[in-house]
């Protein structure tokens, strides 16, 4: 099933349960390598990136099984730190295994986790931080070799709150001798859930949720039961889907407390938002109000929802400016939206101007990466007629079943 077919201009209604978070699951699954025993990771989304991570864990000697209550991981038999090429190439999220394997095996061999279409995605911050902890890196034929015979704590100042680099330092730091202090750490909810999982396993980490983390290393970690939080990016995707397509929906289990900037943007677009224990109620405006949107590290507006907000503003009642401050090439859907009748002008590498039109028309468009693909599905919900989005394996990396979820909200969406 490579494509998704959408019949547009149907106002959404009803409720949908939000899946577990991809970006919380991946580092927690990597962290199971640091424990000697079994963990049960509940609410793990059944998405291709998690399936790839499961294959990686198995290739390293873990026993992993999907159970009714969650993903059971037994890492007592982990024997080596070499990851098979086919499992790593092109999957950036395997990078968080670097810190975990250094913590567990003290050495790692992996393909260089290169960039992707949204940007070059270097790993300089990861490497410089781990070097300060005693890790020695060499590169041979595209493979990254890391050795950490004397993994020790360090005081690390991150010039940019890199999510992945923060996670790798935490994963190595819990097993290092002594304390590791991170100044300028990422504060994303996914970093907090990693810290929470590790503390449940017996680690001692202070400052979670702040930009200063203190990881007290050298603790023995045991497996535990842990529940992955709901995916704030999936919730935001469906929230903006309603703002663009119209209607009124309930996003069950949506983590409203982690979505302040997202809810603020949705209200600026004219949405009526009500957040409760149950989830987030969204009432769409007659037409999206134009706005200026700037992506920032958490708690700012997340870059992963920039594309879907851009798609919604193509039907805005005026001109909007979208500024992408995190990745250098995250406007790949502009050409595809223009095929649907959108009027967008790219001012420079970091910003686009969107002039709202009265109507988008359905056509064939192509997903080129995960979040842009989801944004094209939302554009299809907003367009007159039928839209076919190809390249959908990108979307299945992060969304358990975007077609089922939008059908729950009354949309006519099928995978073909
Ligand atoms: C994580 O990627 C997420 N991925 C991304 O979600 C998310 O967009 C990003 O954080 C920002 O929130 C996962 O958690 C698996 P970064 P990550 O390190 O860790 C530059 C999705 O769609 N940088 O915070 O790779 C980098 O190039 C994905 O779910 C360096 O320059 O993000 C980028 O411009 C997409 N050197 C910026 O920092 C480094 O060593 C943010 O990167 C590391 C990063």
Low-confidence stretches: none
Rough outline: globular
Strand content: 25-35%
* Strand order, sheet with most strands: 21-22-1-23
Question: Helicity, in percent?
Answer: 25-40%
Mean pLDDT: 93
- Sheet having the most strands: 4 strands, mixed
* Bound ions, cofactors and other small molecules, one mention each: ligand EPZ
Task: Report the strand count.
Answer: 23
The gyration radius over C-alpha positions equals: 21 Å
End-to-end separation: 5 Å
Structural class: alpha+beta
Compute the number of helices.
14
Describe the fold and architecture:
The chain has 416 residues and is α+β, with helices and mostly antiparallel strands. It contains 14 helices and 23 strands. The longest helix has 14 residues, at 232-245. Strand 21, helix 12 and strand 22 form a beta-alpha-beta unit. The mean pLDDT is 93.
What keywords describe this structure?
416 residues; alpha+beta; 4-stranded mixed β-sheet; 14 helices; binds ligand EPZ
Compose a concise summary of this entry:
The protein has 416 residues and is an alpha+beta fold.
Layout of SSEs?
Elements: E1 4-7, E2 12-17, H1 22-31, E3 38-42, H2 48-59, E4 63-67, E5 70-74, H3 85-88, H4 96-105, E6 107-111, H5 124-132, E7 136-140, E8 143-147, E9 155-157, H6 163-173, E10 179-183, H7 189-200, E11 204-206, E12 212-216, E13 225-227, H8 232-245, E14 247-252, H9 260-268, E15 272-275, E16 279-283, E17 292-294, H10 306-313, E18 319-323, H11 334-339, E19 343-348, E20 351-355, E21 364-366, H12 370-382, E22 386-390, H13 393-396, H14 402-408, E23 412-415
Helix pairs in contact: 1-2, 1-4, 1-7, 4-6, 5-6, 6-7, 8-10, 8-12, 10-12
This protein binds ligand EPZ.
Ligand EPZ binds next to helix 1, helix 5, helix 6 and helix 12.
